[in-house]
Amino acid sequence: MRTLALATLSLAIPPALAAQTGQFVVRLGNDTLAIEQYTRTRDRLQGEQVVRSPRTVHRLYSATFGSGGAIARFELVTHNVSGAPGPAETRAGAEFTGDSAVVTVPRRDSTVTLRVKAGPGAVPFIGQGFGLIEEVTRRARASGDARYTTTMLPLGDTEPMQVTVTARGADSLTIVLGTIGPLRARVDAQGTLLGLSGIGSTMQVTVERAQGLDFATLGKAFAPRSLGVLSPPDSVTTSVAGATLAVRYSRPSTRGRAIFGNVVPWNQVWRTGANQATLFETSADLVIAGTVVPAGKYSLWTLPSPGGWKLIVNKNTGQWGTDYNAQYDLARLDMGVEQLPQPVEQFTIAIEPRGTGGVLKLEWDHTRASVPFSRK
Fold first, then answer.
1. Are 131 and 38 in contact (CB under 8 A)?
2. CA-based nearest residue to 149, from 170, 132, 125, 174
3. How far apart are the first and last CA of the chain?
4. How would you list the strands of the sheet with 296-303, edge to edge?
5. pLDDT tens digits, one per residue of 32-74
6. Residue 253 pairs with which residues in a beta bridge?
7. What does 205-257 look like in DSSP terms, one character per residue?
8. Distance (Å) of CA 62 to CA 44, 86, 92, 156, 221
9. 306, 347, 354, 310: which is closest to 330 by C-alpha?
10. Could you say which of 2, 30, 180, 235 has the lowest number of CB atoms within 10 Å?
11. What pLDDT is stored for residue 9 in this prediction?
């Protein structure tokens, strides 16, 4: 009991507050990805969202706080309002006790129950759910510490996300949610979330606190206008001098954003697409930019900089696009870079055969980066 009591005290539960309401608009470039509104009282946080990817759904969530201020119960109801295939309604929930959670989630035509070691004071996590993120920023402010750690639990996962919140001044915080981030948040003295930017991070959204949204009208307008998969998978396969070459990757779009030096930061290794690491496969030995690349499978990464690009050929494959490990590099190769007269909206990888070799080309926004290759 003493251990549990100490854990509860360490949650940095904010002092009781008068009923508070808020609205958020979540954007990805010039597209509205989600809207949300919530009401927070002493013992409950209730909210609703409309999220437009991959299909449009309407979510209702409710978190009930226990006597110590930690979340004791969480309920989530999701309605399919886009008319896409799938159930019209699904329900999920969690009961939190100490450092554990019992989670019930839909799976196909039934439900499953999971017992998860969530950590004391865990906060549920739902995609684009910033009322719940605000619960974490409020706790971080209440702690008074420059660095605050906790956990968030995506319903259905068997492991919680480790969350770190770092103070960056009187009105800003940096948030890392597992592999998501860093996110730069603007907050007030109580930790109320005023805005957030993930530009240049692993989650590229921007979030603004809003007032006066006609939530019902916007929700109806968004229902038939799903955004689909934000970075859909694609592949290219071609034959060069008897060798079969293939690339599998995901294709983010500009959505009105400046890409290189902004969405894709300079001088940082980039996954060269989105989602899973980009996969390159060759059935024969190649010479790429003067370096021998034996037949096999590789992940492709790039290192963009204002002074030039490098293509990174890495021997590790099958990983998520944030899991780059330089110890598996086969080679780092110089790329040619040129500016395109017309912007390319959706990131594109192409293989252009030329005689006994060809050119691997990457195009996005106003930039083309390329590297020559030949069969060994």
1. yes
2. 174
3. 68
4. 233-240, 243-250, 278-282, 296-303, 309-314, 329-354, 357-375, 286-288, 291-293
5. 999 999 999 999 999 999 999 999 999 999 999 998 889 999 9
6. 346
7. -EEEEESS--HHHHHHHHTT-----SS-EEEEEEEETTEEEEEEEE--B-TT-
8. 7, 23, 11, 17, 24
9. 310
10. 2
11. 39
Give yes or no for residue 2 having a pLDDT over 60. Answer: no
Name which of 202, 199, 170, 201 is nearest 186 in CA terms. 170
Beta bridge partners of 23: 37, 210
User: Which amino acid does the sequence have at 367?
Assistant: T
pLDDT in tens, 231-250: 999 999 999 999 999 999 99
Measured between alpha carbons, how far is 122 from 100 in angstroms, rounded to an integer?
9
224 alpha carbon, distance to own chain's centre: 24
Query: pLDDT digits over 52-63, tens only?
Result: 999 999 999 999
> What letter does residue 260 receive in the DSSP assignment?
B
Q: Which residues neighbour 257 within 8 Å (Cβ) at sequence distance 6 or greater?
A: 29, 30, 199, 204, 263
Q: Record the tokens describing residue 368, joined without a space.
A: 């083309």
Residues present in the chain in total: 376
Which pLDDT belongs to residue 180? Answer: 93
116: which 2 tokens? Answer: 């998860």
- If we measure between CA atoms, which residue out of 246, 304, 301 comes closest to residue 276? 301
H helices present in the chain, as ranges: 2-9, 130-143, 215-222
pLDDT of residue 321: 93
Distance in angstroms (rounded) separating the CA atoms of residues 240 and 249: 20
User: 3-state class of 4 per DSSP?
Assistant: helix
**Residue 113 CB burial class (10 angstroms; 0-12, 13-18, ≥19):** exposed
33: left (phi over 0), alpha (psi -120 to 50) or beta: alpha
